[in-house]
Amino acid sequence: MRRMLLAVLLVAGAGAPAAAETISITLPQDKFTLAPGPGADVTQTQCAFCHSLEYIMMQPKGPAAQWQGVVTKMIKSFGAPISEANAKVIAEYLATHYAP
Fold first, then answer.
1. Does residue 41 fall inside a structural domain?
2. Could you list the residue range(s) of the whole structural domain that residue 77 is in?
3. How confident is the model at residue 1 (pLDDT cuts 50, 70, 90)?
4. Which of 4, 47, 50, 78 is most buried (CB neighbours < 10 A)?
5. Does 16 reside within a domain?
6. CA of 10: how far to CAs of 18, 23, 26, 32, 49, in Å?
7. 90 touches 39 (CB < 8 A)
C-alpha cells in the first residue's frame, strides 16, 4: 500500500504561532499493473504518485509523439515532479507498450 504524509498547520488563536502535525494517510492499493518491460518500474512509480495506473490504460493507444505529449502535459500543466531522464523513460515505455 502507498502511504502519504501530510503536514497540517493547526492555528490555536489570533497571533499564536502555528504548530505542525504529521498525519499518515494510507492510500488504497492499485489493482492494475502495467505491462512488464524496460521502464515499467519507473512509469509505475512516477505515474502512480498522482493517479491510478488505470488512468494510463484508459488512454487511447498512440504513437511515441502522442505519449511524449501526454508526459509533457503531466509535467507542465499538472506539475508532476518527473525528471527529464524519467520523462524520457516513461514516454518510451508507453510508446512501446501502449501503441496501436
1. yes
2. 30-97
3. very low
4. 47
5. no
6. 6, 12, 21, 37, 26
7. yes
Task: Please list the residues that pair with 3 across neighbouring strands.
Answer: 26
CATH of the domain at 88: 1.10.760.10
Express the helix, strand and coil content of the chain in percent, nearest 5 each.
40, 20, 40
Report residue 86 as a C-alpha cell. Answer: 524519467
Structure confidence by residue, pLDDT tens digits, 25-79: 776 666 778 889 999 999 999 998 889 888 898 889 999 999 999 999 999 999 9
pTM of the model: 0.69
Count: domains in the chain? 1
Question: Residue 23's pLDDT is what?
Answer: 78
Does a structural domain hold residue 18? no
Does some domain include residue 25? no
